[in-house]
Structures are given as structure tokens and as C-alpha cells.
Amino acid sequence: MSDINNLFKELQHAELQRQTRRHFLKECSFGLGAIGLGSLLGSCGTSSAGTAAPALPDDPMAVRMPQFAPKAKRVIYIHMAGAPSQLELFDYKPELEKYHGKDCPAEFLEGKKFAFIQGVPKMLGPQGKFAQHGQSGAWISDYLPHLQTVADEVTFLKAMHTDQFNHAPAQLLMHTGSPRLGRPSLGAWSVYGLGSENQNLPGFIVLASGGKQPDAGKSVWGSGFLPSVYQGVQCRTGGDPVLYVSDPSGMNRDIRKNTIEAINEINRQTYEEVKDPEILTRISQYEMAFRMQMSVPEVMDVSTEPEYIRDMYGVKPGDGSFAMNCLLARKLVENGVRFVQLFDWGWDTHGTSADGAIEIGLHDKCRESDQAVSALLKDLKMRGLLDETLVVWGGEFGRTPMQENRNGTVLPFMGRDHHLEAFTVWMAGGGVKQGFSMGETDELGYYGVKDKTHVHDLQATILHLMGFNHEEFTYPFQGRNFRLTDVAGKVIKPILA
Amino acid sequence: MKILVIAVGAALMIWFSTWFGLFEKEIDYNAEVKPILNKNCMACHGGVKQAGEVSFLFEEEMLNPGKSGKIPVVRGDADASEMIRRILTDDPDERMPKKGPGLTEEEVSTLKKWINQGAKWGNHWSYERVERPEVPTNGGFWARLGIGNQDEINWPKNEIDHFVLKKLKEKNLSPAPEADRATLIRRVSLDLTGLPPTPKEARDFINDKAQNAYEKVVDRLLASPSYGERWAAMWMDLARYADTKGYERDGGRSIWAYRDYVIKAFNQDKPFSAFTAEQLAGDLMSADSDGLPTDEQLIATGFHRNTMNNDEGGTVDEEFRVAAQIDRVNTTWEVWQGTTFSCVQCHSHPYDPIPHDDYYKYMAYFNSTRDEDVSNDTPTLRFFSGEDSARLERVKAWVRQHDPEQSKQVTRFMRITEPKINSHDFDEYVRSSLLDAKYYGGQSGGSTRIKNVPLTGKNRMLISFVRGSESARMSVYIDSLRGTKLAVVPIPTASDSVVIVPLPEIEGTHSLYLSFNDPLKTENFTSIKWVAFQEALPGEQAAGYQAMLLDYAKSLKDGGRRTPILWEGRDNLARKTHVFERGNWLVPGKEVKPAVPATFGKIAKKNQPADRLELARWIVNRDNPLTARVMVNRLWEQLFGLGIVETVEDFGSQGSEPTHRQLLDWLAVAYMEDDHWSTKQLLKRIVTSATYRQSSATDKEKQQIDPYNYWLARGPRVRLSAEQVRDQALAVSGLLARKMYGPSVMPPQPEGIWLSPYDGASWKESKGEDRYRRGLYTYWKRTAPYPSMTTFDAPSREFCQSRRIRTNTPLQALVTLNDPVYLESAQRLAVFMQSKAETPEAQLRLGYQKLTYQTIKPKSLAVMLGVYNKALKEYRQKPNEIDSLLTYVPRHKSPELAALTVSVNVLLNLDEVVTKE
Amino acid sequence: MLSIFLLQVSDWAIFFGRFHPVLVHFPIGFLLLAALLVIGKRLGKVSIGDGTISLILLVSAVAATLACGAGYLLSLGGGYDEEILDEHMWQGIGVAAFAWVAWAVKSDFAHKKLPASGFVYLPALGVATILTMVAGHHGGSLTHGEGYLTTYTPEPFRAMAGMEPRREEMTEIKPIANVSEAIVYQDIVQPMLNVHCTSCHNGTKQKGDLRMDSFAHLTKGGEGGPIFVAGKSAESKMLKRCRLPLDDDDHMPPKGKPQLSENQITLLTWWIDQGAPVDKKVAELKADDKIKPALASLSEGENAEQGDGYNATGSPVLSLKVPAPDEKAVAALQSVGLLVNPVAVEQNLLEVSAVNAKDFSDAKVALLTPLAQQIIWLKLGNTQITDATLIKIAKLKNLNKLHLEYTAIGDAGLKNLHDLPYLEYLNLIGTKVTDAGLQSLVGLKTVKNVYVWKSAVTEAGIAQLRQARPDLNVVTGLDEITVAAFLQAGKADSAQLAKEEKK
User: Fold this and answer.
1) Is the dihedral of CA C73, C78, C82, C88 positive or negative?
2) pLDDT beyond 90 at B602
3) Could you give the CA distance from residue A402 to residue A168 in angstroms, rounded to a whole number?
4) What are the backbone dihedrals phi and psi of residue B288, each rounded to the nearest 5 degrees, phi first?
5) B-C interface: how many C-beta pairs under 8 angstroms?
6) Which of B290, B883, C144, C363 has a C-alpha 20 to 30 A away from that of C13?
7) Structural contact between residues A197 and A336, judged by C-beta atoms closer than 8 angstroms
8) Among A135-149, B179-193, B829-843, C142-156, which stretch is predicted with the lowest mean pLDDT?
9) Which chains have 3+ CB pairs within 8 A of C?
10) Which residue from A30, A144, A360 is facing C346, i.e. has the nearest CB?
11) How far apart are CA A353 and CA A414, in angstroms?
């Protein structure tokens, strides 16, 4: 036992070394994240006022505990930017088939706003061939043959609805809870509340594919009014995986190591003189930067994966494909990254071009992504990661049961316009039921008629699974306590495992 | 017996008197009571909720019976006050507060005392007029006689120091010695100009034996043009300045003229009062012979044109126009009044006595401006040049000659194109649609309505067509499509052309109907940007009239340099303002007239400001309790890293208490009365104080007593801002371009930061000196800001932000280690060091000297030499690595330079370099 | 002049009125004092001159009169219970009157004039004294509300006074030490009702003619008839109402009152489905998986539930109450690079993760021991640990999730992991564990998922374990073959063809 005590002593010493400016975690480690740093700091005296923008802990990324024991410790959020058509993939509407080519019933058009539909459009029957799959008997069309094989892992929300029918505001609403710019994203909230497990990797990583950023730009993974340190770090598959992470050409690792050591050595001397604890923080940040330079490229390198795993995802090394991002997502959560946000651009199928056509563009997008997504689920499961990792798949809104007729003209291809009344989102893993479906739409798939769920409900549920009460998880800004779900949102209890 | 009676009587008297509260100290509502209320009661009994119809937000509210009929606060009788009863009761159903722990004994007794003393109501300190407080005297009696300890007498350099010293004594702290001159000049240069001093400037100061050496430096810095750039950088966050419009398209917006205005305003030391008025209401200021205020005043109104614009398909322009108005109200309050007003948008202020309606009364001042979320950002001020300006002059001359009266209106229209009706306001569409959610478009056989146009004395209709076709015709009817046909207009084939259509003399206000006919291209859309109704230009009979008209029409086309401005809509273009229920713009409540909240200064009651200009004057009125305090605090925060009121953005009762309230008030009054709003004067006051000049070194003890340096027992020590970190690196390596003003520039940035859909815009790397401009001039795209800026805590500028919360992250380290900007700087600096010194040792000394103005300490030098030599060894072995490293200085390639570059890379990352000491 | 002054409730009136509470204390004090002195004197315990006593009497009489005046003025302000006020007033006046009498008869001159007055003296004093008390009580009722004094009368005096037995103010359910031995109705259901229901459904207050403070009343039901059907929770009004949305007017307990937690509703449902027995113990009733966590939560009262039923995971381990972790021990783990964090706010249970400490090895494992009770989630994947470590880990009784993936551990070590009563998750991917080792898990009854991909475990071994433990889910992974199969999925693809046609 004595050896342990000795161990304790030197370890405590080491601990003291790490002590810095605000004895933050000491003063109020419990409750941290419970109500959000901000309101919390108000309560533990580091900031005199409740709604004053709060000070930061020494290590803003230090791991913090949630309000209650979480089921999902990590999230992979797969956003199909542009909004995939639920009517081709999951929401099977035989009735719509009958209506195919007929005029849209007037009641659907009364006082409705569409992005492009004008006059009276024709209805458009489902283009995919539907069948039920798995023991759960989930309806999945043949656009997604691989997903069919993992149907029993998934919970479908088939009566999702939103308030915004344009890409940017709808994406913002989906990720920041508000259609306007300037609010923190789901991922930012997560790392703000829970910190980051892996010291050598960012806690919130974004991977974009499809050749374009999401319409709302970086704001969908921004930190809004939260300190910028919580914004998503975009890992790029071309160039530096993380901005400026690789050393300048001509400066090798040894030299870099020397420089970091030198910087910290001199900084330590400065600390001895001026005793500004901020310097100690800076020293540890430089050490971490150095480690990141190693670990980021490492984790972003898929060549180390066995070939059959890469085949499973359908990854060709070096391509910046969505499949690659799925594989990376797995590697990242495996390494304890808190929140991985995938964006895949090009799901906006209006029917104005072949790429934007349901029978061609949508089909291709499904083909590119289906195998990888399904592989991701299988891979997570066999590694024992799925039950602590929440996977969410969806777009920013749905598509109309009517065929688009931009400017009143019939379009060359089959397309559907933006639709906010009904769309499908699915979730799998961390804390949600396996092989479950919730919510129904009317016979034409226009309105949700049973168990409707709103974007804010989805967000409340995700936070809940991560251990937060979305109503108490707030941050003070401009004199108000803001939360991800604004003033709405109910946890979708039926889908909780 | 008598004695006994008297004795008893006396006893009674004493006992009674305590009931009078004679021997009790007066409870201070703001200091003692309000905090208790805010903490325990206001959440349910405040501006947001009035549970049981009880609220403590306004004086009268707390005195009136709630739902239960019981009176929350009965003045003078705590026991009769429901509030107290509910706090003390044991009945769990009745006990207050409902959630959370009960009040502490002290809190309860404070409330009781307060009520028994008559429950005196108090305005929050920051809402009371600022009065000039007494400057405290320091030093004991003897010391003042020149006997004994003189420190307290000698240390203070101006009034500021007396206030600070007083507090220090209370906290048993003592001021730190003055920082050494090298540190001092670096600090003050970075603070006043955002740039480090040149070696010569530093040397001069260090060797200057004159009594006023430091004052001379300060004056020089205040006079330097960099001063304006540094403070403009601060103002940009407040003005949410950006070079794009935000939202999905986030397309470009050319409004840099406003940024330049701010720089100039600071450099001219424009009084803050004028600076304020011009930005909020420059367009309403007195007009010159052309019927316009000065260009400068108009450009200044760009402040509130920095609101976001949504150009996306299907969006409702009115929704986003309203969003912009709301942002203007919030921003005005945050910037000038340090008050969080946004919450009042949906309900009364949760904590401070501002009723819901006041928000919209205030919005009414801004609501009639002509901007309508139109994609071309109108109204804009157009600048004419070359042939354009000749045209302008010809028309002006003509009109002046024939009808001087009309000339103002004409010039105004040519420069601002207002008043006009934007085509998105047309309605009653037939075979028409709002093309690309921008401009009205009608197909052959289509028609639309222009509602309620006052036509009296307007015998000309100006129409701006986007494009047409040779066969297209447009007919104009009055009152209905079956009404009298007023005109048939052949639509020009040229895109973007303005047509002037004569109309018959018509009295009164009518709706006009446009119908379109295009026999050849029936599916074609004829698209209109705007229409305007005016009196015909004078001198129709005179020769050259047609030519002049042509000039007029031409000068109204798009193009030419423009900058967005505020322009007030008059008559039929003025808007009514309604309260939005729960802040929802779709649910308008009662109409309201412009007014300012009564809480802020009694002046509001007497003479309500009538328009934006008077509002601006009200804001900078001597009686406005907040403006000066807020600005002084803002500047203080910039210099010390911490405001006297830490929550720079919130002076309300939820904000933090001022650490030195007396000092804040004294400075505020001095700013207004002595300095007459001269910001340079104020800054000089502060930076010449002994408080500011203190060394920033601290020790364990001070660290213990005052970890955040609230009490200023040492000088400020904070990391440089995003702009400063970059500018410093460029400056010390001699790369920094001193070019000022003009369009924003695009210095090198990694590939793939910009990938905006539906928008050709791309990052076009600037050439030449524009690569090396100050951070202030870097192109700011809201949805994808310059990466290293955001890494160093710059906001994205979607909304006004008063404070940048300083973080310290590995990503910042990666920037200063690996961002090409810093590598280029390192190489240039290395070349310089080599050219100026022989031995590596000397070179490193020089480098350190150049960055910190200090002589490097032996220990540090040893470390540096270590890095240098290791690197040198490496590069001697791998010469090819030299080539790949030294990309910016190909002519000087050598292992030594490579090693030196590596060493400078270290220097640039030292704490003392990225920190203002 | 005076009359006018009285008629209109002027500030003066209120001002003097406010002195009532002050003045009343004199008569009370002095009269009692006088009474005591007189008694004392009678008993010969005190020697004191009548002069003094009569002075005291005088003072009290004067004070009492003043008090009456002030009292009247105060009453003009209004806002008091007329009835009590009236009584109070007359009692007050009584006090004054009798005080005067007592003094009068005591004082020398009255004594001389009417000798008989001596007999009046004691009664007068007595009455005055008693009235003082009564008036005092009513006065109290007026200012502090009725029954202010008596509310908290303790037994047995309550019974003596014939007062309603006082309702236990239950705000929290006491943890149950041994749940399985608890009597379901008495120890679980009724306490629940006492907290959430009986405040409105009890002897004194019977909203909807319903009492829930005893089994008899409960079964009797209210105005709407019985509130539950034994054996049929679905048809039981009581539960339906609990399940209504909070905003529904019929929801019980009403909005704003403390609500039943998910667990509690589950328990009620269970009890009713089990036939709502009055005397059965938990052990005697059938418990399915759904009820287990709910029962577990009882062992530490309501606090086990976070917020309004916000408990993200139902695992029983989370309702364990353990002492706060030793800070030294936590610091020790942290400084070897381990992450140590409570699984939730106000939880003493810990998660420990070596995600940042790949070099964690047997040498340091001793550091875990001091936290044996607290650690429930342990991640040692990809570290240097060997079988030796598992001996120590086996001592972490409350382990719930254990990550050992990609470590050198094998069967020998695994054998140590018997009786870990809360273990549900075990990750053995990439370890040396073989079929033999896998079998050793049979004993771990609670384990739900075991991950064995890339270990030495074979299909046969898995099959064998499934035999013994059908409930246990052994997850193995894909290999070249299975992947190939996966890739074959959905080759017949109509849409593909449709698309070809288009092109």
C-alpha cells in the first residue's frame, strides 16, 4: 500500500502542475454542463451575474458529466443536404401510385407556399419498388438495397415536420434550432456540455462530401454565441485534414518537436517571472497541438484499414467520397470523438436536370451512400460501438407528393419540390429501439397524421440520449438564456430503448 | 412612584423608537433588495411571467393586489405583506419560491426591513443620470503635509489613480511599479494603434530623458493613421460589418465605404456624439443645395445597413425586412445603451423595468426606412465618375436652369433612386410570378396591380425593366384592368433600362394595373425592378430636352459604385408600426408611435424624440444615463481586457456590478463635459494614468487575492486580438502594407474554405501589397470567415457582439506555427536578422529584441541556440529540405537561414509575443 | 374634531393603529406578572407590597385601554376576518375593563369606600388574565391566519383537545432497505400516494369525494365510482389520469404539484395488475424485466429519477447509492492520463476511460482499487494490460460496462470475472480469449452483450454458450466472406433498369 501512497504523492504534485487560472473544475465540477457552463458560472461565483456571458474553464474541452447517465456518448449525424425524398425511400404510399399523373387536390394547395411549384401540379407516384424487410417489417425501397439488410437496427420517424422550406433556414433549424444565423449547432452544444474525450482530437468534427458545403455554410456547425472553441472542426479529405495541422514542408517532425519544446521551455521561464497562469494553459495547448499533428492525420488515414473493411464501405483510398467519410466517422468515434457531423451535398431533386431527377440523380445518390451507411451500422455494431453511439440520418425537410412544375411548366425529369409537412428521419444505436417505426402520414404522404414529430422534438431526444434535459441546458446571451430547442421540443419517448 | 412612571415611559419611548427604525440603517433597494428579487422571484413574477398576477418589475405592480386579492408588498408592514407571508409559510403549496431552496435568514430580514422602512423603490444605478463624483483623496494627513510615507501621494498620476488606489487599499493591495519602458511602449502602441512600435520608436522612447517622454509617445500614437484602423476594428464587431449579406446565398455586398468612414471618423477624432448621430440618422441631417446631406453623413448610415439580407428563392422579403429592423433595435441598444433589449421583443424585460410595447415604440424610429430586403440592397448612394458624372451634371444644370425648385428632388433621385416602388410589392398576379424571388415578371396575357399610388402632380411614370423582347408591349390602366388605359409602353430589348412614360394629369391616389402582351414569345417573362412616379422634368419646349431625358434615364440604370444607406420613406412610403404579440411578426398587435422607454432618463417624458435624428440626439444627451458610461467602459475593456462593468454588453440589473462605479461615473462625466466626447482625449486620460502604466507581472499572493485583476494591482496582460496577432507578424517582418481604405482584400487562405452553392463567388487571392494589408481589410464572408480570425475568437458578425470571449486552444497554436502568413514572416525576419548580425547568437538576440524590445535572457538564449543548432544540423544533412522550407526568400537559401527561420518560428509563438504585457 | 378624525381612515388613524401590536404586549405582560405575583404572594413565596401590584395593574389597565384604541384604529384599515375581529375586540375591551376593576378595587381609596370589593379583586384579575390569553390567540389568528398557534399541537394533546390527527407532511419517500421483503401496498404504494395524492384526498380535504389515505378508502373510490380495477391497470381511472398530458385538466396530480415519475407509474400499474393485494410482499408477486429497474429505484427513493422521468438509461446499477469518490484516488487516476468522471451530475458512480492513456498497464491498475464501489463503466481498450489486471478488476463489484478490446488478456484473466452482479457489457474484441474463456461467462447472469470479433473464439464456442445462455447476445464480426455476401445485397434492382431506359 505504501508504494501506492508514494505514487499518490507525486501524482498529486503532477496534478498541481496542471492547476491553472480558474479553479473551475474544483469549484463546480458537479453541475457543470448540467445547466450549461454559463448559468453554472453564475452559480459558482466566477461571474457575478446570472445572464452575463460566462468566463471559460481553463480547459474548455475538459470532459464534463451530463445531467443524467447518457445512453449515447457519441453521435454520428448524417445529413443528406438538399433533402432526400421520403416517398421514394421509406414512406410507402400505394394510394399515391393511383393518383400518379392526376391534378393535385386543391386542399393541398390552399394557402400553401412552395419554393418553386406554381399553379396546379400533377401528383407523382413513388418511383422505388417497396417491400418490407427484417423482422420489424420495415418498408424500404429498392433504392436502398443494403439498408434493407440492417432494417432491424433502425428506428424510423416517418412523420417528421419542419417550419422552413428553403435549404439554408431548414438546415439551420435542423442543426441550430433556429432558422436564423447565429445560434450554436447541435455538435457545439454537445462539446460545450460534455467536453472532448480524446485529448488529441477535436471533440466535434465535420466531414463534407458531394463537392459542396451545405447551403447554410459553416454556420450549421458553428458555435453561434458559444465561445468559438466549440465550433465544429472541418476535417477535409483534400489538403490538411485540419487547417494548418501539417508542418510546413521542409520542417520535419524532429525539428517541430524541438520548436514546441523550446516554446514551452521559454514560456515556462516567463511564467516563473510573471506568474500569469494563462501561460500554463498555453503550454498545455501547445503540447496538445503537437499531439494533434500526429493523431489527426493518423485517424484520417484509411489505408491502415484491412481491405475487406474498405470494400464493405466501398472506399477507394484517397477519394473524398461519402463512403470514405462514413469509414472515417467510425474511426473517429472509435477514438472517442464526441460528435461527428457528415454532410453529403446533392440530394435536392427538383427534376430540372438529370442529376436533380428522382429516377436518376436520387437513385445515384442512394447508390453512392446506401452501402456505406449500412456498412457503418454493421461496423459499429461488431465493434461494440453501436450501443453507445447514436447514428442519425436525414435531410432538412421532405419532398412533395406532387411533381414539380417550376414556373408552371412541365419539367423534363421527375422531381419533387421542397416539402415541410412530412419527411422521414431514421436513428440507430445509442439508446433508441431496434427495428421500430413511429409516425404515419396520410394516404398521399402529404401530412403527418399520427405521432408527428417536429425538428425540435428530434433535437430534444438527441440531447436526452446524451444525458441532457433540453429545457435546462442553456447558455446566456443578450440577456436571455438560450437553448437548442428554443422554446419548444418534447423528448420522443416511444422510440427510447 | 413618579420616577417609576417616568422610567417606564422612557423604556417605552426607546422601545417604540426602534419601531420607527430610527436606529436602523436604510436598506438600499438596488444593492440589497433587487438582487434578492432577481434571484428568487423575477423568473415567475417579472417581465416574462406574472404568476398569480404578481410582479416585482414595476413599482406599482408590487403594491397592487394579485389574483388572490392579497397585496404583495404593504409599505411599512412586512407582516401584512403577502410576499413575506408566502416566503415564511410552512405550507408547501403556498411557500415561495416554489422551486429551489427558500430564502436565507439574512435575505428575509433584508426584505422585511426594506418593507418596514416603507419599501422604497429605486432605479437601477445605471439608469440614473451620471453625476460627477468626488475624487477621493489618498495619503494620511501627515503624508499630505509631506511627512512620512509618500507613496500614496506620489503614485497617482491623475484622478483615475485616486479611485483605483482607494479600492486597492480597501482590498489590502498595493499598486505594482511602473512597467519598464520597452514593455510600456509596446503595450501602448498595440493598444492605441494595434501595431507594435518600430525599433526606432522604441529606442527613442527608452532613451528619452524628458519629463513628458511618455506623453509625447501617446500623442504621436493618437495622431497616427493606424489609430483609426485599430479602433475601427473594434467598431466592426459592433456594427456587425461584413462584406457579404448572410443567409444561404450570402452574396457579396459592397459596403466598405462605411468601414472607411469609421476609420476616418476615429482618426479625425469626430466627437462620439456626432459619430453616433451620423451613423443612426445621417440621412436626416440638413441638406445642401442638392437636397442631400453630405456623402460622409449618408455613408455613415451604413451602420444599420450591415443587417443581413436574404436573397433566397421563396423567402418573404417582409419577414427578413422585419428581422433586420429588430436587429437594428437590438444593436442600437447593445452598442449605445449596453442594455439587452432583445428579450423585450417577446415580452417585458425579465429583470429591468421595460414594458413589452416599448420595444416596438422604439422600432418605430427605424421602421420607415426604405430598405426592403431587396437583393440589390437599395436604397444605395451612387457615386458618379467619368461620363456618368458628366451626365449627372448636365441634367442637374438643365433642371436648375429651368426650375431650381425641382433640381433637389431630381438630384436626389439620381443619386439614391428614391422614392420608388419595388416590384416585389405588386400584387393581384395573373400569369405572373416573382422571378427568382427578386423581381416581378409577367408573361404575355399576364397582369398585376400597383396599389395606392398618389398621382397628384405626378405626370411621369419611370419603369426600370430587367429585360424585355422586341415584340413585348405593356399597357397601364387606372383603377382596374377595365379602367382607362393611361399608356402603352414598348418594352426595350436592352436589359436593364429605364423608361419614362408620360401620364395624363390625375388627381388623388389610385391603383394602377399593368398588363403584358407578347404575341411572339408568349412564355417570355417581362420583368420589372421598380417604378417611380414624378413630375415631368422642366423645360420641355427647350431644345435638347430629349437628349437630357436620355441622360436622365441612363443615369438611373444599375451599375456605378454604390454603397447601401438608410433613407427615410415619407408619405405613402412611411410604415405604421405595430406591437408583435409574443414577438411574432405575423401577429401584429396595436399600433404604436415612436417613443423611448421612460425608465431611461426623465428627459424621455418631457420631450419624446420625434424621429431617428432626434433619437440619436437623445442618446448622446447629457442626461442619457447610459451612453457615456457604456462607451467609457467599452474603451476601458479594450485596454485592460476587463471592463469596469465586466458585462460590457449588459449594464442592467443582471449585468455584473461595476468594480469601480465612482471611477466609471467620473470618466463618463469627464468624457461628456471636459472632453466634449473626444475619444482621443479620453483614451489619453486612461493610458497616461499610473494604473495603466503598471507592470503586469504578478505573484502568488496577488494571484490569490485577485486572480482576474479586477482591482488593478497590476497592469493588463492579455492575448492579442485576432487582427493584432496577424498584423504584428507582418509588421515585425516588414511585410505589412500601410495602404489604407478601399475594397476588402483576400490574402492567401487554404483551399476549400469557400464552397457556396448557387453563387459563383470565390476567394480570389489578392496580388501585391493587398496580400499584406491589416486584418481589418480582410474580406469578411459571414458563412465562411477567414479561418485564422475565427480561430482567434473573432465573431462571424451575423449579429452585434460587444465582447470577444478569449479562448486558448491548440488550433490557435497550429495557426501561428503553420499558417503560411507566419512562415513568410519568419523567413523575412530571418533574412533581416542575418543581414544585421554576424553570429547566430547575435542574430537571435536581435530577433528577440525586435519582437519584444527586451534583451533576451541567457537561459532563453541558450534554449534558442539549442533549437538553432539542432535545426542547422538537420538542414546541413538534408539540403533539399531547405528548398522546400524557404519558399518566400529563394535568393538567400542556406542551412543557416533555414535554421534561423525555424528559430523565428519559435519566437513568433512565444507567450510574450502573442501577449500584450 | 376627534369624531371626524375617527370616521375617515386617515393616515393618522393607520399610524396609531399600527402601534396596536406594540401596545398589546403590555397588558399581556403586566397582567400575567400581576397574576403570578398574587399567586406567589398567596403561597407566601414572594413578599411584595400591594402598592407595587396596584401600580402594575394601573399600567396594564392603561396599556390595555390604549391597545384597544389602537386596535380599533387598525381595524378601520380593514382586511380582517370580521368574525374573529369582533370577538377579539370585545375580549380586548374586556381585558381593559377588568384590569381597571382589578386596579380600582386594589387601590386604597376604592378599598376604603366599598369593603366588599375585596371579593371582586381576584375574579376580576383572573378574568382579565384569561381574556388576555384568548384575545392574544385571536390576535395571532388575525395577523398570522387562523389556527396559527394550534396547527402544530403535538400528540397526545391533540387527541385530548379532540383535534384531527395531523397529516404527515410527506415530501420524500424513504428509501427501502430490502425491497423484495417490502409489503407492496403498505411500503410502496401508500407512501407514494401520501406524497402525491393525499394532500387533496384525505380526511379533511376530499376532492371528488375521494380519500386515498387508507386502503379501504382507496378501494371505495370517489364520486365517479372506483378508481381502479384490480388486475386491470388499463381500465383503472387512477392510472389513466396520471398518464394524461400534463396540460389536460383531468391530469393527476394537477399541474404544478409534484408529479409521479415513470417508475412510480410503472409500480402502480404493476401493483394493480397483480390484483392490488393489500398484504403481499414484493417477492410474492411476479416481477418482469419492466418492473425491475422501477423496484431497484425504490432502494433510494425518488432521487434516483432525474428531472421529470428523465433517466436516459434503465440499468439498475444507476440507482446504486455509493459514497463520494475519494478525491486523492481520482486525482491519482487522472494524472496517469485516465479520464475519471461521474456518469452524471450528483452521481457518485464513475466512468473511467483510458482513451488517452494507451500506456496504461498492470502496474497502475492498483489505482483503481480505492474506487471499487464507484467505477461502473471502465474502458481499458487498446492498453498494455494483461490477465494480471483482471484480478484487480474483478474487485470492482459494480462494473456495468467493461472494455478490454485489443488487449493482451486471455482466458486465464477472464476467469476472474465471476459474480459481477451488474455487468451488462463486455468487449473482448481482438483479445486472446478462446471458446474456453467464453464459457466462463456462463455464470455472469446479468451480461447482455459480449463482443468477441477478432478474438480466438469460434462459431462453435459461441453456439455452445448460446445453448447455456440463450438470453446472452454474443456479437462477432464480419470477415471477407460475410462482407462479400453483404455486397451482393439487392442486385435485382428495378430502379436501375428504369434508369437505363431513361438514358
Assistant:
1) negative
2) no
3) 22
4) -95, -165
5) 19
6) C144
7) yes
8) C142-156
9) A, B
10) A30
11) 9
Say whether residue A5 is in contact with chain C using an 8 A CB cutoff.
no
- Say if the Cβ atoms of C22 and B15 lie within 8 Å: yes
Nearest to C22 among B19, B77, B93 (CB): B19
In C227-366 the beta strands, taken as DSSP E runs, fall at 339-342, 350-353
Question: For B175, which DSSP code?
Answer: P
Residues C210 and C225: their CA atoms lie apart, in Å, by 9
Does residue C247 have a pLDDT over 70? Answer: no
Chain B residues in contact with C79 by the CB 8 A cut-off are: 80
Task: Find out whether B349 and B54 touch, Cβ atoms under 8 Å.
Answer: no
> Which residues lie closer than 8 Å to A313 by C-beta, 6 or more apart?
A323, A324, A326, A327, A371, A372, A375, A376, A379
Residue A50 pLDDT exceeds 60: no
Q: What residues does B4 pair with on adjacent strands?
A: none
B654 to A222: CB separation less than 8 angstroms, yes or no:
no
Per-residue pLDDT, averaged over C406-428, amounts to 92
Q: How far is A339 from chain C (nearest CA, A)?
A: 16
- Binding-face residues of C in 241-270 toward B, CB within 8 A: 256
**Cβ contact A89:A445 at 8 Å:** no
- Among left, alpha and beta (phi > 0; psi -120 to 50; other), residue B429 is beta
Mean per-residue pLDDT for B104-132? 87
pLDDT for B320 = 86
User: For the segment A229-241, what is each residue's pLDDT rounded down to a tens digit?
Assistant: 788 888 877 677 8
Percent over 90 (pLDDT), chain B: 59
Phi-psi region of A182 (alpha: psi -120 to 50; beta: other; left: phi over 0): left
Cβ–Cβ under 8 Å, residues A262 and B867: yes
Subunit contact A65:C366, Cβ cutoff 8 A: no
Tell me which chain A residues have a C-beta less than 8 angstroms from the C-beta of C478. Answer: 308, 312, 378-379, 382
Give the minimum alpha-carbon distance from A157 to chain B in angstroms, rounded to a whole number: 27
Distance from CA of B718 to the nearest CA of C (A): 29
Determine the length of chain A: 497
pLDDT tens digits, B729-755:
999 999 999 999 999 999 998 877 776
Confirm or reject contact between C290 and chain A (CB < 8 A).
no
Q: Check CB contact under 8 Å for A219 and B650.
A: no
Q: Which three cell numbers stand for residue B666?
A: 467620473
Whether the predicted interface score ipTM is above 0.90: no
> What are the tens digits of pLDDT across the range C305-349?
333 334 444 678 888 888 999 999 999 999 898 999 999 887 899
Query: Which residues, listed in sequence order, are joined to residue A394 by a DSSP beta bridge?
Result: A79
Beta bridge partners of residue A122, listed in sequence order: A103
- pLDDT (tens digit, 9 = 90+) per residue, B850-880? 999 999 999 999 999 999 999 999 999 999 9
Cell of A37: 457552463
Say if residue C256's pLDDT is above 90.
Answer: no
Contacts for A264 with CB less than 8 Å, ≥ 6 apart: A283, A286, A287
Q: Which three cell numbers stand for residue B306?
A: 450591415
DSSP string, B571-610: GGG---EEEEGGG-TTSEEEEE-----TTS-THHHHS---
Contacts of residue B749, defined as CB under 8 A and 6 or more positions apart, other chains included, come to B763, B765, B786, B787
Most C CBs within 10 Å, among A19, A43, A65, to test the C interface: A65
Residue of chain C whose Cα is closest to the Cα of B2? C55
What pLDDT, on a 0 to 100 scale, did the predictor assign at position A10?
A: 43
Residue from A351, A212, A26 nearest B248 by CA: A212
Chain B: residues touching C (Cβ < 8 Å): 1, 4, 8, 15-16, 19, 76-77, 79-80, 92-93, 98
